[in-house]
Amino acid sequence: MTKVYLRSPERRDGKEFVAATKASEAMHRPWVFPAQDLRGYYDYLERIQDSRQEGFFVCRVSDDRIVGVVNLNEIVRGAFQSAYVGYWGVAEFAGQGLMKEGLARVVDRAFKVMALHRLEANVQPGNQASIGLVSGLGFRKEGFSPKYLSIGGEWRDHERWAILREEWGGVDEVVGS
Length: 177
Fold this sequence. Notes:
By secondary structure, the protein is an alpha+beta fold. The chain has helices at about 15-25, 25-30, 40-45, 100-110, 130-135, 170-175, and strands at about 5, 55-60, 65-75, 80-90, 120-125, 140-150, 155-165. It has a seven-stranded mixed β-sheet with strand order 1-2-3-4-5-7-6, with helices on both faces.
């Protein structure tokens, strides 16, 4: 049974987005620092208009509430056909499998609709929930990158997790839709 669907972020979502990020701050830190005001949200909307970015809201079918965000960043075409995956969930909905289904739907879209070949997720080593999410979807650990990304103003170590199109079994295999 489908619990979530994907949709594009819109300007009208600003208040819900900001409320969700503020309410989820304790869960997000130090892993991710999403915008916590409307100006930051509008900057995010502008950023995902770039052809190298794609943003998705994961929304609950039962009431259309935003339960998380998934971004495909630095989409490279040509011989690479690859993107980096970033994501975060709303604390109120944690532990319900909604982000697993939402991220699976984005992976499915990336491979089947966007025709990408490879997705990479970079996860801080201590973020066990995020590691469980990507490994549960079939991403494999490829390596370790010291001080790889600046998160919250600090250079942080990351594990590199990736999946190829030919390794992906499809959203139905992962979430049983």
